[in-house]
TrEMBL record:
GO terms for biological process: base-excision repair. Transmembrane segments: none annotated. Pfam families: Adenine_glyco. The keyword Metal-binding applies. This is DNA-3-methyladenine glycosylase I. Zn(2+) binds at residues 10, 23, 183, 187. GO terms for molecular function: DNA-3-methyladenine glycosylase activity; metal ion binding. It comes from Maritalea mobilis. Keywords: Metal-binding, Zinc. InterPro entries: Adenine_glyco, DNA-3mA_glycosylase, DNA_glycosylase. It comes from the Bacteria.
Amino acid sequence: MDSLNVPQRCFWCGEDEQYTRYHDEEWGYPVEDDRRLFEKVCLEGFQSGLSWLTILRKRENFRAAFDQFDFEKVARYDERDVDRLLADKGIVRHKGKIAATINNAQRAIELRDEFGTLAAYFWQFEPKPSERSEVKDEATLRKMAQTEASQKLAKDMKKHGWKFFGPTTAYAFMQAMGLVNDHTDDCFAHQKAEEARKNFSPPQPK
């Protein structure tokens, strides 16, 4: 392929086809679907200590193992389900993270019942324009492991009983789900994500 025809992308996605597709089509675009939001919280927890590409390659296995991340179903998992998941070679077999996912499904139901949707809860933490970094270059983003907004989200999630969701994980979640647009300025997807955010109406709590 002529290198002149390869679009400029964010530094982190490399050249893996699955990773670049995730970057091009998903990362940074606003999401309001509760199941996708719950899935991302869970997968970010499973990623702890691993690369996102490792999780991305197993994502379909995770979806099959966790009932497509239907949190109503996951919340009812029992010890038999834990044993089943620990025996599943297609996912990350970590008992603490599996237990956290079941716990978080129960907490997701509580938040949905309180706020109307999970999306309405999460989008409350979208940073105000004055709180957003205007510098979107590689050097700056490499240093930004967390932000004030991600710290607030992680603190509130902890208060509500969620597990495996600290401020660094919260920031990765916010970047991926479009609560912030952290595509670098020279990335071809930056403007596409910005337009998607402008056309997006954040859901409101009930």
